């Protein structure tokens, strides 16, 4: 049982190293942006990054799962045009739970 909780030092060093590299790339981006004035198309592109990353995370779930998740994503998308973010999240969670129960996936 004790072997389950043992940590290989190389694995731990790898995880810590990846965390540090991730942290420094995020901080470096914030520091570098302070020295430049970003306007026009570059500004529009940078403002689109959060939505693009969100879609990159969500799209595989929408396309690779069942009909309940796909339909819930469509409902959430339609609601997102009218409601604030917190309400969109609530509607998305409720719709996926309800649709899973309808399709018998729960």
Automatic annotation (TrEMBL):
Transmembrane regions: 12-33, 45-65, 71-99
InterPro entries linked: Brnchd-chn_aa_trnsp_AzlD (IPR008407)
Domain of life (superkingdom): Bacteria
Keywords: Membrane, Transmembrane, Transmembrane helix
Pfam family, one: AzlD
Protein name, per record: Branched-chain amino acid transport protein (AzlD)
């Amino acid at each position: 049982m004790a072997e389950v909780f043992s940590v290989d030092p190389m694995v731990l060093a790898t995880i810590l190293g990846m965390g540090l590299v991730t942290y420094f790339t995020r901080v470096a981006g914030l520091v570098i942006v302070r020295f430049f004035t970003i306007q026009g198309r570059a500004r529009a592109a940078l403002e689109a990054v959060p939505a693009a990353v969100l879609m990159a995370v969500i799209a595989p779930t929408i396309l690779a799962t069942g009909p309940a998740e796909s339909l819930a994503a469509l409902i959430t998308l339609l609601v997102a045009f009218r409601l604030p973010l917190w309400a969109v999240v609530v509607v998305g969670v409720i719709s996926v739970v309800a649709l899973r129960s309808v399709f018998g996936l729960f």
